[in-house]
Amino acid sequence: MVKFYKAEKKWLKDWITQASDDLRTARDYIDKDEDYARKNVCYHSHQAIEKFLKAYLIAKKVDYPDSHNLERLQAMCEELDNTFREIKPLNLRKLTGFAMDARYPQHEYERKRISSNDVKEAFNAAVKINKFVTERIKKILSGN
After folding, report:
1. Which tens digit of pLDDT belongs to each residue from 25-74?
2. What's the pTM?
3. What DSSP character marks residue 33?
4. Which domains does the chain have, with CATH numbers?
């Protein structure tokens, strides 16, 4: 059974800040072509996406799951705003896998090394979702 956390608006700014920090960390490693850097870009890109999606749920006053599954979070957001369909092509299933592959050694041995293309895909997705979600949160906060 998945635990859900209460969506408290007082934490919204912190979620956005943390997501932005993860995106900045990914950006710090983006130009390094070493295994540790590729892992960090993918991991922090995933974390940024997860936190931006959860921030949207919080802005909409929807309790959010203790889950790292980006597809699930996207589906929850889409139930509230069908424009979230636009981010489906970003391959959220693959990006969810990056969180495990980059973070835990046993997963790294089960799959291939994270490639430069994977890094670009993860980072670009995080940048797009940042823009997409923050635009929607601004509308919610302004009452539009």
Report:
1. 999 999 998 888 998 999 999 999 999 999 999 999 999 999 999 999 99
2. 0.91
3. -
4. 4-142 (1.20.120.330)
| SS3 category, 4 | strand
Rounding to the nearest 10 degrees, give the CA dihedral for residues 106, 70, 35, 16: -130
* Residue 138: other Cβ atoms inside 10 A: 11
Q: What confidence tens digit (pLDDT) does each residue in 71-122 have? A: 999 999 999 999 999 999 998 998 888 777 666 665 554 456 788 899 999 9
Identity of the residue numbered 70: L
Amino acid (one-letter) located at 27: R
What's the CA gap between 66 and 81, in Å, rounded? 21
Radius of gyration of the chain (CA): 15
> Which tokens go with 124?
């670009």
Token pair belonging to 59: 């802005």
3-state secondary structure 79-119: HHCHHHHHHHHHCHHHHHHHHHHHHCHHHHHHCCCCCHHHH
